[in-house]
Amino acid sequence: MRSKNKLLVQSAVLVAIIVGAIIVVRHQRPEAYQKDTGFVFGTVYNISYQSDKNMKAGIEAELKKVDNSLSPFNKQSVIAKINRNEDVTADKMFTDVFTLAQEISRETGGAFDVTVAPLVNAWGFGFKNDTKPTKHAIDSLRRLVGYEKVMLDGGKVKKRDRRMMLDCSAIAKGYACDVVADYLRRQGVENFMVEIGGEIVTCGINEKRLPWKIGVTKPVDDSLNTNQELQTVLNVTNKAMATSGNYRNFYYKNGKKYAHTIDPNTGYPVQHNILSATVLADDCATADAYATAFMVMGLDKAKSVLAKHPELMAYFIYDGGNGVNAVWFSPSLKDKITE
Predict the structure, then answer these.
(1) Does 48 score more than 70 pLDDT?
(2) Which among 328, 332, 292 has a CA at the least distance from the CA of 107?
(3) Which residues pair with 35 in a beta bridge?
(4) Sign of dihedral through CA atoms 297, 303, 304, 308?
(5) 247 has a pLDDT exceeding 70
(6) Residue 280 pLDDT > 60, yes or no?
């Protein structure tokens, strides 16, 4: 009898050990990664995050808030109403972006400027009226451009000229990445990657339990966005990354190549030697804006700005002459280059 009771006790202990082991394994099993994709701001977004529930509805609600604030194509957005000179009070999103944009404009001598919209519209793609803008037209429009000619006072945007228009497209995608990243953090998500039109924010590890690695595409003429050849791969874990380049946004007219990026100071498409500017920063709105500014400034001036901002890291691909591309990157970026 005693032997039988002993056997029962041993069996019970064994069952308890097995059940406990199963519970421990289940708790240690990593949650699956959700993968959401969609279309926003005229481009595609891809978001990967570790969670036992899908958050696409919440993510798209956050993106809708950004659209309602910063999209010039949304007629009811805050920025659209400002451009129409309606009596509208700026919301927090517009205020955050405008304030950051003005700061970066000052730091880059106006190379980044959210008032450049009239010049961008004048050049267009393929010249909308099939005519290159005249010098007189450009000079006239330049009077409507200048970050120092617009200010935010008590939630109201004040313009030196009512014809001035704001366009935050060179910072809004990066800001939207930050907004989604903040939303995921509030939901308790620790591992994620948010990508909107090439602008990226990462946190933690990927589903292979490795650091997030992002490729930098080689800058070859690729208006159809079919080239996937990589120049390098960067470890961007717990960082934001943005890339600006004219190798995908350009057109030819009468045998001359015109870049997408307009220099607010000259009114003309940039002709500098940088082909691709990738910037890493703590937030994507900052990375996005500086990447655009560096494309306008050119290599030497960009280096000067970076020397004053050690919190930024940059990877430049530029025309080294004789049709050969060259690379320059911040010394602090060296450890993040994986291949």
Answers:
(1) yes
(2) 292
(3) 48
(4) positive
(5) no
(6) yes
Tell me which residue has tokens 């949650």.
31
Q: Please, are residues 321 and 273 in contact by the beta-carbon 8 Å criterion? A: no
DSSP 30: P
Poorest-pLDDT segment among 3-17, 219-233, 240-254: 3-17
Helix (H, G, I), strand (E, B) or coil at 321: coil
Contact 279, 314 (CB under 8 A): yes
**Do the Cβ atoms of 237 and 273 come closer than 8 Å?**
no
- For residue 263, how many other CB atoms are within 10 A of its CB? 21
From CA 138, how far away is CA 140, in angstroms rounded?
Answer: 5
CA distances in angstroms from 42 to 73, 142, 257, 296, listed in the order given: 10, 27, 24, 23
How far apart, in whole angstroms, are the C-alpha atoms of residue 249 and residue 247? 6
Residue 166 near residue 68, CB atoms below 8 Å: no
Selection from 258, 298, 257, 255 nearest residue 275 by Cα = 298
**Given phi > 0 = left and psi -120 to 50 = alpha, else beta, which region is 278?**
beta
Both tokens assigned to 170: 């060179």
Q: DSSP per residue over 78-93, as a string?
A: HHHHHHTT------HH
Phi (first) and psi of residue 292, to 5 degrees: -65, -45
**Global pTM value:** 0.86
pLDDT in tens, 89-138: 999 999 999 999 999 999 999 999 999 989 988 887 544 555 778 999 99
> Which tokens sit at 248?
């995908």
Which conformational region is residue 19 in: left (phi greater than 0), alpha (psi within -120 to 50 degrees), or beta? alpha
Residue 56 to residues 37, 64, 187, Cα–Cα distance (Å): 9, 12, 12
Residue with tokens 């934001």: 240
φ/ψ bin of 322: left (φ > 0), alpha (ψ from -120 to 50), beta (otherwise):
left
Query: Is a pLDDT exceeding 50 seen at residue 250?
Result: no
Is 96 strand, coil or helix?
Answer: helix
With a cut of 90, say whether residue 54 has pLDDT above it.
yes
| Element at 173 (helix H, strand E) | helix 169-186
More confident residue, 67 or 10: 67
